[in-house]
TrEMBL record:
Residues 8-175 form the MoaB/Mog domain. This is Putative competence-damage inducible protein. It comes from Pontibacillus marinus BH030004 = DSM 16465. HAMAP family: CinA_B (MF_00226_B). Belongs to the CinA family.
Length: 419
């Protein structure tokens, strides 16, 4: 599809500018276009203002081969994408009978009374191809002016995605047929920082051409997206695999998964593989570790449960952490974390116990500054251990980072048992 195709995405809606909703449409469309070999050169967000819309549409017509517009196709007076585009495209608007029948049928099926302004959603550019909306009312439209293809889509993400997947991308492919097949793969790392990863791969990144190597950092982990273009998808995949192997030889110990994998999922798979069960004793994390695990399908086969032991009395009375440990070392300590991990595994009859205790902030606890976290791990038949960490950020960030670090410790420890 995309040798030299310059694409542009315009999101229409004052609510986007006000921050009332996020512009997730542009992110998703960009990702999908990249996989189709199309380069996106511009992202714009613009409010529901006729003069500014016509100005931006005119600019897009002059500079882009493909313009995708989301939003502003609804029934209300502030939905004016059609009117502004009509001026730039020099195409009149008419009410499409079949689209109107579909809208009326939607209301009838759901026993709703249709207000007269909903007729606006059936208004189409003369000469446009209708992209049917199977999950909503306002259809998408595709129309060309000179050498620019315009695609108009509703702003509701579910409707936009359905239209693009079923009709939009095939339409783009048909319009720009000289395609370079593309293959993209995400390598996911944990336990290594972005700066260290880039340092270890510095020469590969500097020499990158095809495939491209794009490091991406997120909360507590790093990813690398490898993307290759070639005369066939098989060849593009082969190019990615060669570079992937070079990366793996240097930093493969930190790779935990690919593409949409999560560290929770990878730990879950290792627990299933080894037929291990796990339980958690959570103080500052308040159940977040178990919550992430039980969202995975089949979690009951590996997760026996958890204890939220926020108060000192719960640690003493329910988990039976010895009073001597708490009086001598404190609840925020390596000794307490180890005792919590061992005892929760025994009480909930699990092969593995993991514990979290620390200071989410903002105040100090037992002389420890905010961000101090101890994570304890006990695996049946092995000596238990605990590690101290310092995490930056507010309360929520400290707790989130602690949970992610717990999964990281488990992943590397369980993975080593395979070797």
């Amino acid at each position: 599809m995309g040798n030299g195709v310059k694409a542009e995405i315009i999101a229409v809606g004052t609510e986007l500018l006000l921050g009332q909703i996020s512009n997730t449409n542009a992110q998703w469309i960009s990702e999908q276009l990249a996989l189709h070999g199309v380069n996106v050169f511009h992202h714009s967000v613009i409010g529901d203002n006729y003069e500014r819309l016509t100005s931006l549409f005119s600019l897009a017509q002059d500079r882009s081969d493909l313009v995708i517009v989301t939003g502003g196709l609804g029934p209300t007076d502030d939905d004016m994408t059609r009117e502004a585009a009509s001026e730039i495209l020099e195409k009149p608007i008419y009410e499409d009978a079949e689209t109107m029948r579909n809208i009326e049928a939607y209301y009838e099926k759901n026993s709703f009374t249709m207000s007269p302004n909903n007729r606006k959603q059936a208004r189409i550019f003369e000469g446009a191809d209708i992209l049917v909306n199977d999950v909503g009312m306002a259809p998408g439209m595709a129309i060309q002016k000179n050498d620019t293809l315009w695609i108009f889509l509703p702003g509701v993400p579910r409707e936009m995605k359905a239209i693009m997947q079923h009709q939009g991308f095939p339409y783009i492919q048909q319009t720009f047929p000289n395609q370079s097949p593309i293959f993209s793969r995400m390598l996911r790392f944990i336990g290594i920082g972005e700066s260290q990863l880039e340092h270890d791969l510095k020469d590969l990144i500097a020499a990158q051409q095809n495939p491209t190597i794009a490091p991406l950092a997120s909360n507590g982990e790093v990813a690398i997206r490898l993307t290759a273009k070639a005369e066939s998808e098989a060849k593009a995949k082969e190019l990615v695999q060669v570079t992937e192997q070079q990366i793996y030889e240097r930093v493969g110990d930190y790779v935990y998964g690919y593409d949409d994998d999560s560290i929770d999922q990878s730990v879950f798979e290792l627990l299933k593989e080894k037929q291990f069960t796990i339980s958690a004793a959570e103080s500052l994390t308040g159940g977040q570790f178990v919550e992430r695990l039980v969202t995975l399908k089949g979690a009951s086969s590996v997760c026996n449960g958890g204890v939220v032991c926020y108060a000192k009395s719960v640690k003493e009375n329910l988990l039976e952490v010895p009073k001597l440990i708490i009086s001598h070392y404190g609840t925020v300590s390596e000794a307490c974390a180890v005792s919590m991990a061992v005892n929760v595994a025994e009480k909930l009859d699990s092969n593995i116990g993991i514990s979290f205790t620390g200071v989410a902030g903002p105040d100090e606890v037992e002389g420890h500054t905010a961000g101090t976290v101890f994570i304890g791990i006990y695996i049946d038949g092995e000596s238990p251990f605990a590690k101290r960490f310092y995490f930056n950020g507010d309360r929520d960030m400290v707790r989130t980072k602690a949970v992610k670090k717990g999964y990281e410790l488990l992943y590397h420890h369980l993975k080593q048992k395979n070797h």
